């Protein structure tokens, strides 16, 4: 078996020089890579700090889906300080700011916030709580949506075709109770001007036919509204007009009763007494 010859001094020196050159080469390669990465990062940061990537005014916030609520009010609710870099925008934070709380519902039912790069800005897509009635809470008149939530009038545009229905006694009942009633009233074919539910005695509707008493809210409500729709032509029930009626009682919807004014009652008694 042949023995390997030991390297001589010259070979050892050459080997050491080669290793030193390789180490220097790897060092400079790593240094250039690091320098290139830092330069690229610096240029990127510098580029992102340019005004082109900043939101500088509320008009760069595009609001979509707002028909009832004033877009200026929506922009004012966003916790943004201008100028603001587009990458500093946190969509989830802005969404929470617009949704309100269970005790103080926002006029915005749902919202989605997105960054927009070209042109730089923010898109706010909202779905509103649509008012179906008006009601007073304390000293302030506001709006009520179909879920029975009271909404401050401040966020809304100037009234144009606002709901005419007024709810009296909104504070005396829960939003869930009002939601149940409002859902039933949407099936009414009779014009309803107001709902009086201020006392525990029951619900009275002020309608084009006169006052309609429903009594306490119950599972009879859909049938009561159905009966009211059938009473559009009063002459099917009596020879009278809405001016002759004090109240229509629908507590028993299968047997509605009419309370006439004293004058209308006297006229009918005259007809009965005539020979």
Please tag this protein with its features.
275 residues, alpha/beta, Ubiquitin-like (UB roll), Rossmann fold, 3-stranded mixed β-sheet, 6 helices, rod-shaped
What does this structure look like?
The structure is a single chain. With 275 residues, this protein is α/β, with parallel strands linked by helices. The protein folds into 2 domains: 76 residues, Ubiquitin-like (UB roll); 143 residues, Rossmann fold, CATH 3.40.50. 32% of the residues lie in helices and 26% in strands. The protein is built from 6 helices and 16 strands. The strands form 4 sheets. Strands 10-9-8-11-12-13-14-15-16 form a 9-stranded mixed sheet. It is rod-shaped, with a radius of gyration of 38 Å. The protein starts with 8 loop residues before the first helix and ends with a helix.
Which SSEs are present, and which pair or pack?
Layout (H helix, E strand, L loop, with lengths): L8 H40 L5 E2 L5 E4 L6 H7 L6 E2 L5 H8 L1 E2 L2 E2 L2 E9 L4 E8 L2 E7 L2 E6 L4 E2 L14 E3 L6 H11 L6 E5 L6 E5 L2 E6 L5 H10 L14 E5 L7 E4 L1 H12 L2
Parallel strand pairs: 2-7, 8-11, 11-12, 14-15
Antiparallel strand pairs: 1-3, 4-5, 6-7, 8-9, 9-10, 12-13, 13-14, 15-16
């Amino acid at each position: 078996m042949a023995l390997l010859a030991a390297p001589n001094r010259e070979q050892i020196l050459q080997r050491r020089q080669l290793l030193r050159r390789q180490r220097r080469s790897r060092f400079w390669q790593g240094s250039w890579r690091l320098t290139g990465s830092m330069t690229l990062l610096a240029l990127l940061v510098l580029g992102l700090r340019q005004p082109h990537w900043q939101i500088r005014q509320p008009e760069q916030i595009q609001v979509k889906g707002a028909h009832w609520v004033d877009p200026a009010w929506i922009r004012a609710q966003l916790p943004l300080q201008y100028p603001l870099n587009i990458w500093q925008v946190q969509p989830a934070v802005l969404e929470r700011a617009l949704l309100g709380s269970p005790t103080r519902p926002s006029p915005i039912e749902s919202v989605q916030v997105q960054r927009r790069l070209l042109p730089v800005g923010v898109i706010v897509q909202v779905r509103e709580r649509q008012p179906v009635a008006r009601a007073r809470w304390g000293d302030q008149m506001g709006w009520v949506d179909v879920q029975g939530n009271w909404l401050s009038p401040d966020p809304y545009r100037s009234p144009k075709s606002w709901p005419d229905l007024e709810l009296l006694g909104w504070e005396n009942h829960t939003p869930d109770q009002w939601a149940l009633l409002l859902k039933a009233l949407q099936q009414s074919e009779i014009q309803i001007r107001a709902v009086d539910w201020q006392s525990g005695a029951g619900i009275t509707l002020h309608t084009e036919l006169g006052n309609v008493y429903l009594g306490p809210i119950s599972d009879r409500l859909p049938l009561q509204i159905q009966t009211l729709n059938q009473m559009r032509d009063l002459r099917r029930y009596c020879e009278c007009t809405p001016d002759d009626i004090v109240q229509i009682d629908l507590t028993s919807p299968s047997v509605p009763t009419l309370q006439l004014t004293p004058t209308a009652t006297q006229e009918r008694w005259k007809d009965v007494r005539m020979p």
